[in-house]
Amino acid sequence: MTLEPVLTAEEMRAAEQRAITAGTSEWELLQSAGKGCAAEITAFANGKRVTVLCGPGNNGGDGYVIAEALRKKGVSVRVVALTEAETPTAAKARDCYNSDVESAHSDVEGDILVDCLFGTGLSRPLDPDAHHLLMRNAALHQTVVAVDLPSGVVSNTGEILNGELPKYDYTFALGSWKNAHFLMPSSALLGKRIRVGLGLEFGDVSGHLFGKPAPTPPDFNAHKYSRGMVAIVGGEMHGAAILASEAAMRAGAGYVKLAGDTEHPAVPADLVVDPGPLEEVLGDKRLDAVLIGPGLGRNDTAKAKLEAVFVSGKPAVFDADALHLITPAMFETSERRCHVLTPHEGELAVLCEAFGIDRNTKLEKARKLAETTGCVVAAKGADTIVAAPSAPIRFFKPASSWLSAAGTGDVLAGVVVSRMAAGEPPLEAASQAVWLHGEAARQLGPAFTAGELARQMRHALATCL
Question: Is 3-207 a CATH 3.60.10.10 domain?
Fold first, then answer.
């Protein structure tokens, strides 16, 4: 498992200040950033014309360093400045650029546009002149590159401050990833993301990018119960629970049981269906984890099943309909830290209302919900994040947009409970599941079904072993 730091703008400034205090000058950091970006651009700039847009601050200073480094490599470069450089370091970079700088009123056609107008400190929309300069020049170039972040994006939230920004082909994250590299709506604009290292030390951070997991394979003497036993509590709509069960069977658990009176032609032969009393299923001492929610319904019977899961004290994953029925009182009978909640955007709003949480962004809502409930929260969407009490937020590289299909959330829930039953702590189980879910989708390509996604899960798991 790899965890790469994901920083807020404040954390990034603190890391840079620590480096400066330790003896690295701001000029050296600027040189490192600019030359690192230039090296990346050189890989695809052969024979092409590059235009660099420079703003007034140190992001603009990066642009001058990029332009000079490319010029020395024989690349055709033009620089367009929004205004004069306004910081000493940016002014020094401008002075070291040994060529002409064009005004913001210039129309420059080229092949590659490099956006160095504003960086992670921006907190207001681009003014009309800056926005017009960016949009006009983006339309005149085939490839658009953002240095650190696109100008007009809020680093901590991913908010787009202007109504329209270009779509970028590359984004170079300077020093470390930032929240906006993985949060919507900015994430949809960024194209290929490349981190340009600056040799900084980060210490404790508020976020991590979760990479390929390293699950432990079964021991040589393993049996079905030692690999983990799962119960999936069914309800009104059998298909959702069956999908979750199929995913759980292919994500590592040794024994998956569907609890409920389920007669359905899609039930596979290797899935155990137990129509007996739910209390007896949940009372099995060999049972390691429970999933409730997919296809559950929201009637009194469904609520009674949910309460039984809480009373059982078993580690549980709560998804779909269960998230609409949960109340704060239910947690009074349960060990919160062993549970996972898997809400999409609408369900996250429902949970926040139920628990009296008033926050503006998805990240803030997920973090506060985790703190309030004591649960791990996998907040699903195009920018899925995983939050846990007193732990950094976990971010993920963007997954396939083809996951926007009915039943894929049921599959994810099945993978989470499977990884929990296999012995992973809730935070690791949820994080591994999100990664495996995305990897299975990547392997499948376009236009797959939820059933195909569930069946692909073992191949995704194989890439980690």
Answer: no
